[in-house]
Amino acid sequence: MSKARHRASYADAGVSIERGNALVERIKAQAQDTARRGVMGNVGGFGALFDLSALNYRQPVLVSATDGVGSKLKLAIASNRHESIGIDLVAMCVNDVLAQGAEPLFFLDYYACSRLDVALAERVVQGIAEGCRQAGCALVGGETAEMPGMYASGEYELAGFCVGAVERAAIIDGSQVAAGDVLIGLAASGPHANGYSLIRRLLADVGTELHDDFQQQTFADVLLSPTRIYIRPVLQLLGQVKVKGIAHITGGGLTENLPRVLPESVQAGIDTHSWQWPGIFRWLEESGNIARDEMYRTFNCGVGMVLVVDAGAAAEAISILSEQGEIAWELGAIQRRAAGSPRLVFL
After folding, report:
1. Counting CB atoms within 10 angstroms of each CB, which of 63, 97, 225, 287 has the fewest?
2. Which residue has the higher pLDDT, 90 or 40?
3. From CA 27, how far away is CA 33, in angstroms rounded?
């Protein structure tokens, strides 16, 4: 008599539909807390609905962005600090949308792991919801993927997706930037979410642990400080001052990102004496014996966003940003570019 065959199930393969459902139920309140005008329906549908007509745009143009948090996630996992990494995820996307002059409207996340730890995932989503609150956008949904064998135990991956809108006439693309304009720097909260593969290598090379002291904090405190979200202060500024260009200083640092918003006919002159690097960047430079050019190309070095305005509007812009709680200063100026000369120079 033949032996009865075992009936295989998804659970046998390590995937629990019940855990996924439990997470959705836990995060519904967080998502609902980020709701804004235009959102239709609740988390849990096949797609998220958003009524653009509710916002009274005349000629709306949608602006979209997607990003992750890179290997900063490794440090969050190693230090069991999962609450703020979601803020990083939102920030990396909404700040990109802002660079076009757009208001972020809604956000979706993707969370992938080997085995879903519902409590841990809830902590991550709480950070995502907090980031959405800071940005004024709605967390309308996402995807949780449980994939045994794809990730090591205890590890997970994050990705984010944001959609914003801007009036066609108000799109900021840098085309109007001209010689004589002023660069305004906005302070970063730390390395944000870029350069962490090098940071992790340097920590290992010099034998530094995340719990070690660094300037009255720990390395974990400094390196896991969430990316600053510039949405509210910059949108406030856009309603009062004409901004010609916005560069989000992410991977590639000032060297690669600022030229992206400049016409070919001009170059940016950065006054390197206009701000002081936060201590963590000095530590990185010295610990890794990193060349100054490499620092500017890898890290934000304390500058999280750069705005370009008319020279006559610079003082007013800095005042408005300061009133909104930002550290803002004149970072440099735009000048004519000779044929063959670099797009950006450090002075």
Report:
1. 287
2. 90
3. 10
> Model confidence over 282-294: pLDDT tens digits?
999 999 999 999 9
CA-CA-CA-CA torsion sign (260, 344, 94, 37): negative
The C-alpha atoms of residue 108 and residue 169 are separated, in whole angstroms, by 27
Please give the model's pTM, rounded to 2 decimal places: 0.90
Tokens representing 122 are: 């809830």
Return d(Cα 326, Cα 120) in angstroms, integer: 32
Written as six digits, the tokens of 225 are 């400080």
Dist. CA 98–CA 140, nearest whole Å: 19
* DSSP structural state of residue 155: -
Residue 2's CB is within 10 A of a number of other CB atoms, namely: 4
8 Å CB contact between 115 and 148: yes
Opening angle at CA 50, ends 36 and 89, nearest 5: 65
Whether 187 contacts 303, CB under 8 Å: yes
Tell me how crowded residue 16 is: count the other CB atoms within 10 A of its CB. 15
Q: Which two tokens stand for residue 81?
A: 């600090």
